[in-house]
Amino acid sequence: MNKLLLFYTRCRYVFLSAVRIYVFGVALFLITAIQAMSQNRAVSGTVKDSGGEGIPGASVLIKGTTTGTTTDSNGKFTLSAPDNAVLVVAFVGYEKVEVPVNNQSEINVTLQSSTTELAQVVVVGYGTQRKVDVTGATASVKGEELAKQPVLTATQAIQGKAAGVQIISSGQPGSSPVIRVRGTGTALAGTAALFVVDGVLTDDISNINTADIVSMDVLKDASATAIYGSRGANGVVIITTKKGSAGGIKVNYTTNIGMRSATNLVQMANAQEYANYVSAASGTSVTPGSVSTDWYDQILRNGWYQNHNLSLSGGSDKSTYFLSMGYFTDEGIVIDNKYKRFNIRSNTDFTLSDKVKVGVVSSYTNANTRDVNLGSAYNNAYRAAPTIAAMENGKYGNTSVYQNVGNPILDIKNNNQRDIDNRLQGSAYLEFKPVRSLTFRSSIGGDLLSKNERVYNYQFNNDTSTFINPGGNQRNPNSNLNIISTRSFRWVWDNTLTFSQSFDKHNLTVLVGTTAEQYTMDWLSAFRKDVPADPSLWYINTGNANTSTNDGGGDKWARNSYLGRVNYNYNDRYLLTATVRADGSSRFPSSNRWALFPSVGAGWVISGENFMQTQQIFETLKLRASWGRVGNDRIPSDAFTVTVTPNLAYPYGGGIATPGSAITQIKDPNLKWEVTEEFDLGLDFALLKGRLTGEIGYYNKKSKDLLINVKVPSVTGDADGVVLTNAASIQNVGLEVALNWRGNITEEITYRVGGNLTLNNNKVIGLNGGQPILDGGIGGNQIYTTRTDNDQPVGSFYLLNVVGVFQNQGEIDNYKNSKGTIIQSSASPGDFKYQDTNDDGKIDDNDRVFAGSYQPKAYFGINGSLSYKGFDLSADIYGNVGNKVYNGKKAFRLGVFDNVEADMAYSRWTPANGSQTEPAANGGNLPASTYFLESGSFIRLNNVTLGYNLPATLTQKVKVASVRVFITAQNLYTYKKFSGFTPELPGDPTKAGIELNAYPTTRTIAGGLSVNF
Amino acid sequence: MKHTLIVISISLILFGIFTSCSKEFLDVPVQGQGTTKTDPALAQNLVTGVYNSLLAGEAFGGDGGDTHGISFIAATNIMSDDADKGSTPSDQSALNDIDNFTISPTNTFVAALWNGYYTGISKANQALVALSTASLTDVTKNKLIGEVRFIRGYYYFNLVRLFGKVPKVLRVPKDAQDANTDPEFQTRASVDTIYNVIIQDLQFAANNLPLRSNASVGHVDKGAAQTLLAKVYMYRKEWQKVFDLTQEVISSGQYDLVADYSTIWRQIGDNSIESVFEIQTGQFNNSDYGIQGYSVWQGPRVGGKGGWTDLGFGFGTPSANLVNAYEANDVRKASTIIVIDNSGQHKGTVLFDGFRIPSADSVQNLYYNYKAYHSENSSIETFNGNRDRKQKNVHLLRYAEVLLMNAEAANELGQSNTATTLLNRIRKRAGLQDTNASSQTDVRDAIWKERRFELAMEHDRFFDLVRQGRAAQVMQAAGKNFVAGKNELLPVPSLQIALSGGQLDQNNGY
């Protein structure tokens, strides 16, 4: 024991743990023997950091030689050097310094913390590491970067900020964007990355106030994510919220207020254009009349948005605290829509003794959404005839009697939907360090969500009390009220033991742990008709009891895991990380319940080698490689159990029906884990004194036994026609490059330019013996539009190929296959000429061809900033290229009286213009073809922010530490080829990239203020 | 060192706790959903679930498909010369395609029928599995099996008449792999094979079901099984069997004609003495519970000047061809067709419940199907406000057809006199004189004609024309674009062909 204690006293510990993370990464540096090298002058001194603390283990070399030493536990060194020598003093995480000896015998050096990314501490699963020690691929985005953007969730704010991370965000308010890390490697709704908020695992972070976030760390490759095993296949995003620090009370108030407006709207035909087109299409003359309604204009507006945050932080050496309060309101761009969020957070830490620490992070969020029927309102706004008046004297234009399309304004006004979410999320930990090298940590996290949805549908009839003229099918003879109450609770219990020790130049950290997690949910729904229209009576008891119905259900699942990780670092040059996680999930049958997810990663800090000390170019250079396996279990809890659907009743002999039941779903009793195996190679570097930093990465991801909802023939009797099973294998191979340059033009003008680019190639490499997967049906006779098949990207569009437009009857008669059969004998001039791919003399599904997919070939982000004195200006650009999107809303056109896009009204084929690309005026209902397929490439100016920090001399007069004002613009400009609203179309990968409900995207202009006291 | 040991032991204990209890921890039963093991009355409940499939009417790709909703109405009435698509000209162009024989294999209504019948068949197969192991008396078990096999046989009968060759599916697929690979699910069996399945199912039902008087109201009984089996044999032209079976139904003494034809399709006519097999409706979950969409799709629709709250979407309207074909004084015409007042005198049309439909300038179409009309006046017929599932029983087999089948079989067997006696019984109720047909050919024609009016808008006409081998002749005469050798059958849905990897073959001409 004494020996051990002695050993410890010779050691000096450097804690690199950042704020409240599960495991403290410990770096330990040992004294090495001092080598007296020559007969020259003996030089001694201390290497210190900017805080005056000695830095142990720093290298002190004589420039141009391999001669040198390292500092001792107090940062002291002694060596012998020629009088004219130059000493190169370096330590990882600090700027390298060169000092001429100049006959001095004592040289004290102060190293400045390096600002390069490699030196930063990054959060990894169940711990932190210096970026330089990480063997996996990770990306980190700072909280400040996120907070300045006027967005609801932080996910949206990291778009374009990290290589290999694709954010697909629809324009729908309150919706969470989809994150794809390194291509689409999984096909279900569970494609979203896993979020870990202060250790609590979650799929939804819309409750997290962006202003409370310190950093978001994206774990990209298997070496980094394998510690999350089954949850890691789609990448892991670790969110760390703010903590207090010792010192006086710090108060911060931040606000931004702005205006949202619709952008990239599709121009629809006006009344005259519509009348011309529909007259030509239907053969009956339509006259435009006096009104010309722009339906999008009728349902859209400019909406205000505001965000206020107040935080308080501080502490002593025994305890720290961070308290915050946020209030966010967003009107959105659609009439009646509104979102309000109020949240409070309290993060505290207590040091009970030098061995015991405890802490709690917690947040409460109340979100209130006034929802509108966006789907039907947008869809109907696209289809409704412009010749019908929107409203006159408080009465609605009757579009449904004219063309069977609901009046879009009434779609919104005929109901009142309100959702209230109350969410309590937090975790508490206990950390115990019996001896310095050993840390035991236990943490329990919980996430309680209570959701209350209230939908009231007003009573109205299709008569002249509601409409300008009566009739049609937009009516609701009885008012009704539906209240749905959902409660869910999830807990996670993590226990980890970390051993960290250094022996000579060997640095070793070993982590072992267990985690257990359980989720329970139940919901209850009540419904009654004839509830009065007064909002104060919108409670179930006021309705007609004879119409009461109710429903309910629940869910429960559990996971249990064992994990281990070894980090080994030899002399800060050679790095090895090995992890293993055994995961058990209740969502798989007991025979396939457990799976093992190992990974191994190696790194070589080339810049740490002696031979690199003589060069001036690279400050850091690191090569890393890793291999690992991760999984995905995000499938419904009932996926492998054959269940019986109740309440399929039959009223024998009339009267009250007898309840019956049926087995309507085929289940796969042998469901197993979806496993992704990934190989990763990367090079991280910092050049020119850290001015240029960057990384280059290559990855090869193979996802096997993908869990997919496979369409099965109707003869199997599966009611929804899809069965969840392990159906395919997908490969993603890609290259990522990220470069950042910072420099200054003059002393006062500094700037940063960064960019990242990801090239990805996605393809299906196996179908597990099954059929290709058909998906992307949009109704009408476009029953499917995509086919997931071998050697094609997942969800590839599979369509008839339009080769032209028939100009005259002669062309139709002459369009024959090799046997002389007229291929489209029933066509008329102005109809599309489709490719008879199989040369069988007719056009049918067998003539479809692969026509590209939604998977982009590349995506990129560019960001830059410039600062001059108190001013700073920054801009982000994001884009992707090489993918396709399907104009589903145009393809869905089923009725001859549906409106058309203005462009179609003008470019339609006529015998005179002889168009080869646009058909003659038609009533829609066309087959799925390449006509509806368009380029998905786009580039967008995502955010521009101009800020100004008031001079301290000014602020101190009013006893304010700092004041910053800024203006910001989100989604300022998009360049796209797609004629629809947006090419960013989240969706299940087997049917992604289809624009059906056409949400206009939102532009935001906002101004803000941040004050620190 | 002591501390180290403590921590290690704590950790080991924690590991131990989890290792020992994780088996149970991860054994989470599915919440809120029963399994085949949790329901002691599973078999009986599954049988009711099979009956439930009779009410399916999801025409646009929804779960469960369509057995008797608008897709069924389209493929039987609208496709025939008795009815037109109706509604507005542009509404539901895929129904125009069915009306005009321009149907493509991507037609959503055709796909819904395929899906609906096979979903029903699958429910039947599931119920049969559960019944085979259920602890019930043999009599009860065989009765339940008989009911299920009747419905399965009926669905195959519709499938074979709509599509010709179809896959023969008599078992439950084990999983998706099985469903996607076994040729049984991927290829079509011959028409003869399918008819054999139907005959075996119906024969079992006929042998094991009780007579109507011993059966619960609304359940399939022996008479229903015998009648449907007779009808199947009629399509196979096995006239002796048709005759014997219908004779047995007649002599069972369980059935008779109701006096007033107009009551058959009203709620007062539900499960009448004439009813042999009808789809039941009632209430469930505090709402109406009938065939999805059956009434509302066929309800009179506002048009022109408007000014009234209409009753439905106006599809499946009786054709002028049918309206003009009735003999004068045939009481069945006014009970079958709602005729909109087009006289210019604005009298409107008053229905049996007193509801007044305005005259033609406010209504979309000139004729509507009276047999699909269900009153919204809850003092006349039961109505709880759910238009989509009105309590409209659909009469699939009734005694009048038993008599007509018996007559047709008798005539084919050379007993034309017996045939005309039966025929005149039908004509008498319709307020018509006795037939003057006497030769076998004339009597056959007379019976065929009588079937058209007696069973008008009752989903029989198109199948009947194909059975009689004169579909092309009659349809072309009615001005329809019917191609002989093609349009007798619907196309196999293209998605199903694609899902079979191309193993399902397409019908001729599509």
UniProtKB/TrEMBL annotation, chain B:
Cell location: Cell outer membrane
Domain RagB/SusD: 274-485
Coiled-coil region list: none
Matches recorded under Pfam families: SusD-like_3, SusD_RagB
The entry's keywords: Cell outer membrane, Membrane, Signal
Domain SusD-like N-terminal: from-to ranges: 91-234
Domain of life: Bacteria
The protein's name in its UniProt record: RagB/SusD family nutrient uptake outer membrane protein
